[in-house]
Amino acid sequence: MPDYPTSIGTSDADTITLLGHDLAGELMGKVSFGELAFWLTALRRPSAGELMLFEAVLVALADHGFTPSAIAARLTLTGAPESMQGALAAGLLGGGSRYLGVTEDCGRFLADTLALHQGPLPVGDAGWDELAAEAVTAQRAAGRFVPGLGHPIHKAGDPRTPVIFRIAEDSGLLGPHLKLFAAVGRVHPAIIGRTLPLNGAGVCGAALADLGFPPDLLRGFALLARTAGLLGHLAEEMRHPAGQSIYRAVDEAARYVPPDGA
Asked: What is the domain range of residue 159?
């Protein structure tokens, strides 16, 4: 028989073991869900500061109102009220380059920039600004957006961003990804010709990268957080349905245009 090793969990007739601990006797009621999520992915328990920063990221990404993902989830529940799993999945499937995926994109941009840097990391703001300017200039020259810049609603500043920076600094976790992201905020106006806010999804990606998570995992944390928000929307949809009204509003505003040549 093939061998399938796992360090996550196992069970037998009498016990459930998770991360080397008895689930019922050692973890339930003693470990928060946020701590468990960190532990499951990092395979180590977070420090108190790491847990505070990690859970702040999850809270920051949980919900942002009637976003496309929330609308998709509500409309799916409207059409299939028996399918909670389908409604949640519908909301999560849109986590791409415009929504939620920015957490991964920004973390990857920062990690790639740091990986390409030759020599020791900068010490002061001037050195970080120079590194950020090189990265932003290269991104623009390649015709790509700088991930983590701009927000469709919070045009003057995303209220989540300074909080993540403050928690990271207070916890001694203001690492190279967050320092580089802060420098991007300082240097980009002179390069792109306008000032954009550092958005919450981007700063969350930087914080998660400083917590040691690889870029390939970062979108997963955004989806984990948004699942809670979507579940809230679906619970509200059950109490006060909006999906049918959204559907009617779109249907009534639809304007049929005959195809060319018809």
From this structure: 101-216
